[in-house]
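This part of the workshop introduces the protein records we will be handling. As an example, a complete record with its sequence and its C-alpha cells follows.
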Amino acid sequence: MAKTIGNPLSWLLQGAETTGHHISETVGEMGSEGVRDLPQARDLSMDDIIHSLAAGLEDFAACRSDAMFLVLFYPLIGIALIVMSLSMNLLPLIVPMIMGFAILGPVAAIGLYEMSKRREEGLEPRWVDAFSVIRSPSFGAILVLGLYLAALFVIWLVAADMIYSRTLGPEPPASIASFATDVLTTRAGWIMAIAGGAVGAVFAFAALAMSIVSFPLLLDRHVGLPVAVATSIRVMRKNPVVCMTWGALVGSALVIGAIPFLAGLIIVVPVLGHATWHLYRRAVQ
C-alpha cells in the first residue's frame, strides 16, 4: 500500500501521542522501586578521585570542542547575573552567586555525562547527543532534582543576603572598593565572611549529598528520584572523607575557573562533568 506524506493535523496528533506516552513513562520512572532496592555503594579512596579526574581529562581531550560548546552558556549566565547584581545594588551577593555555581554544577553537566557514557560504549560522542537526555524515561526525575538544587541555590542567596544585612548592611555598599575594604578590615566584615562561609558550607554539603551520583545514576539506570537521592546519600555516608575531598576540589576548581571573568569555567566544568561520570562508575556497583 502506498504511503502518503500526511498533513499538519496528522503530524500534530502523532506528536501529541508520542509526547503523552513519554510523559507517562517519565512519571512512572520518578517513583520506581523502593529504597530497599538501592544500588550498592562501593568503598572509595583518593585514588578513585585521581583516576576519575584523569578519565575526565581524557574525555575532555577527545571531545573538547563539543564539551566547550555545551558549557559556553555557563559563564555567560554567570556574567549576566553579576552585571544584573551590579545594576540592582546586589554587590554583596556576587560571591555567593559564584560559590553557588557548585550547587548547580551537576545540572549543567547532564549533557557531559551522556557524552562520557557514549564514549564509554565505544560510540563517537557529538554535542547533539547531549540532548538525548530529554528522551530518557528518567528525564522527569532529572528535571525535578534540578529544580530542588535551584531552590537550594535561591535559599542560599536569601541566607547570604540576611547575613549581610545583619553585619555590614542593610544599606548596599557604595562601591566595590569600599565593600572589599569593609570585608577585609572591619570586625563586621570578618563576621560576615566567617558566617557566610559556614552557612555556605552547609548548603554545599546538602547539595553534594543529594547529587554526587544521583544525576549519573538517573541517566544510566531506570531508577526513580527517591532511589537516586538515597543512593547518593549512601555513597556520601560510606565515603565521607573522599566525598568531602571531591566536593572541596570541585568548589575550589570552580572558584579558580571563575577568577578570569568566569572564562575558566569553559574548561573546568567539562573536565569536572566528565570526571563525575567516572566517579559514579567507581562509587556505585
User: Anything to note?
Assistant: Confidence is low (pLDDT under 50) at residues 1-35.
